[in-house]
Amino acid sequence: MAGVSDREHVSHDMGMHTEQLAGRTQQTFFSPEEGESFVYPDAPGVDFNKRAEFDAQDLDSNAINQKIRELMNDGHGTIVVKNPGAKHSLGVGILNRLNLIFEGSLGYFGIGLIDGPNVRIQGRVGWSCAENMMAGTVIIEKNAGSTFGAALRGGDLVCRGSVGSRTGIDMKGGTIIVGGDTGAFSGFMMQRGRMIVCGNAGKNLGDSMYDGTIYVGGEIKDLGVDAVPGEMDDVERAWLTRKLKMYDLLPDKGVDHFTKIVAGKQLWNYDNLEPTEKKIVL
Amino acid sequence: MCGIAGLIHRGNTSDIGSEMTAMLQSLRHRGPDSTGFAVYGVPGPGEYVIRFKVAEQEDLATGFKIHHEIRARRALVDERILEMGGEIVAAEEATEYAYRYRVRFDGDLKRLAEFIEDVEGAEILSVGNALELIKDLGDATVVSNQYSLNGFTGTHAIGHTRMATESDVDIRSAHPYWAYPYNDISVVHNGQITNYWIMRREMERRGHRFVSSCDSELLAVYTADKLDNGHSLEDSLRQSIEEIDGVFTYVVATKDRLGMAKDTMAAKPMVLYESDDLVALASEEVAIRAIIPHEIDTYDPYDEEVRVWQA
Predict the structure, then answer these.
(1) 3-state SS string over A186-238?
(2) Residue A168 sits at the chain B interface (C-beta within 8 Å)
(3) Rounded Cα–Cα distance for residues B6 and A55 (Å)
(4) Per the CB < 8 Å rule, is A184 touching B266?
(5) Is B123 helix (H, G, I), strand (E, B) or coil?
(6) Do B299 and A124 touch (CB under 8 A)?
(7) Tens digits of residue pLDDT in A202-240
(8) DSSP letter string over chain A?
(9) Hey, is the C-beta of A123 within 8 angstroms of any chain B C-beta?
(10) Dihedral sign from CA coordinates of B58, B60, B63, B68
């Protein structure tokens, strides 16, 4: 049984075998042509130069989200929401291109389930910001709560301040960038994607991570189970520099002092190939 | 789920009754079962404020007889305060079954409290020089109006909106909690304590009493025990993270301090705003926005973080 490890022998003897995954995740779901200009069937066509703004002070979360929908359907490509007042679930489920600006803070579950928009939040965000985000860019000017970018699948999620615990829990792609510190259990069960923390990281960093990469510029309190330091090459340094520069977060001393953390254990049936469809979406 | 909130004015007093009502009302969605306030007023010299009830709200639906019984129970409490050497300076009726007494007393406060609670249906909600504890079924506005909390002047307050998960929907299981023998202490908690029974039995062995089967009461008893044994509030909060298991974020208030602690898993939320003259903290930022409408900087405390502020 050439090429089979000792551990695999045991499972073979028991009648089990390692599933051959090579090729399965190479399946193409979208053609490259569609990938270039893919839009959801009911996504409104918007013009970035058509700008609208409204005051959300006296509106509840549903009414604010409804108002954003109406403005998008009218073709507004730049929408400014004033006084969001830390209300919950704002800006969720936007599946098309849009420039969305919140002049204030969001509560819990803000900007979840989005695919495409560029969002700027000029305040802070509560728990679970940009959960399940597929694509686009979200920039938060102040701090963020826990489970920041939970189950993130794509796009860039940037917080200039510090974030709470369990940042990037279960993340499956995309990039999380934190200008300040991050709390305990960051990168917990991370499966793909990259997380960059310019400040310090709390305890159990990368606990139970399957795959993906975490870069930390400051101190790491301790590493979680299965997380180990990795070696950075020049390509990664160039990528880090470019990403941080893009969001004006590049430290004066560059990125040489960053520590790279990766999964230290290969899971039995885990395929870490990046799916082709992911590349098209990104 | 539950919502907790706290605020403290540094070196100043304010209408903390209205402020805490606004904070808790905006957290209503986190738990509509009951609402509780612990407000710290300006203490009168040599006086205690005792808030107590002699029946539960649901008892009122049991028939006409209860109204007569409530009057009889209250008369018995009055009698016992006098018998112990206390003087009732003022008596206010917050509801038919809950009262606020200002009492001049210089004896053993624990004995007085136990003597009052010996009356059928009687339960002391709070006793202290500065602390007043109000809790009842309903949302913050309902409870605040019922107990005339708007306009209450003081330095600091904590509050709680409860989603009943571990025990019944009644006043007894509502937060905040306080505990003998250290007066002026109150606690609100969001989370679940998993070594409750072990810790409760230990506390009971040490002579502490529990009035409910709600796990959050343990934190009040634990803190009272620590403070009574000479520990600082900060030490008590730090030690609780080591000794108490479960997921919790809780806020403690004493006569002149406000403190918070977050467990090792950081599983329960807390948002914090801090300035030179005001500290406000709550399960959600929307509660802080209810009293500070302009744009502010807030942050989430991390795991095992302990903070204490002085009034």
Answers:
(1) CCCCCCEEEEEECCCECCCECCCCCCCEEEECCCECCECCCEEEECCCHHHHH
(2) no
(3) 29
(4) yes
(5) strand
(6) yes
(7) 999 999 998 899 999 999 999 999 899 999 999 999 999
(8) -TT--HHHHHHHHTT------TTGGG--SS-HHHHHT---TTPPP-EEEEEEEEE-TT--HHHHHHHHHHHHHTTEEEEEEE--TT-SSTTTT--S--EEEEES---TTTTTT-EEEEEEESS-B-SSTTTT--EEEEEESS-B-SSTTTT--SSEEEESS---SSTTTT-EEEEEEESS-B-TTTTTT--EEEEEESS-B-SSBTTT--S-EEEESS-BS-B-TTEEEE---HHHHHHHHHHHHHTT---TTTTTTPEEEEE-S--TT---PPPHHHHHH-
(9) yes
(10) positive
Which residue in chain A is spatially nearest to B292 when comparing CA positions?
A85
Residues of B with CB under 8 A from a CB of A: 265-266, 269, 271, 284-286, 288-289, 293, 295, 297-300, 302-303
Output DSSP code: residue B72.
Answer: H
Per-residue pLDDT tens digits for A111-158: 999 999 999 999 999 999 999 999 999 999 999 999 999 999 999 999
The β-bridge partners of B68 are none
Subunit contact A124:B297, Cβ cutoff 8 A: yes
Nearest to A87 by CA among B77, B289, B30: B289
Instruction: Give how far B273 is from chain A: nearest CA, Å.
Output: 12
**pTM to 2 decimals?**
0.86
B214 counts as catalytic? no
Distance CA A175, CA A61 (A): 27
- Which candidate in B1, B2, B61, B211 is catalytic? B2
CA gap B125, B53 in Å, rounded: 7
pLDDT digits (tens, 9 = 90+) for A166-210: 999 999 999 999 999 999 999 999 998 999 999 999 999 999 998
What's the burial of A202, exposed, middle or buried (CB within 10 Å: 0-12/13-18/19+)? buried
Place of tokens 């020049």: A234
Whether B303 sits inside 8 A of A124 (CB atoms) is: no
For residue A164, the chain B residues in CB contact (below 8 A) are 266, 300, 302
ipTM: 0.84
How many residues are listed for chain B in this entry? Answer: 311
A278 or A84, which is more confident?
A: A84
A261's tokens = 């953390």
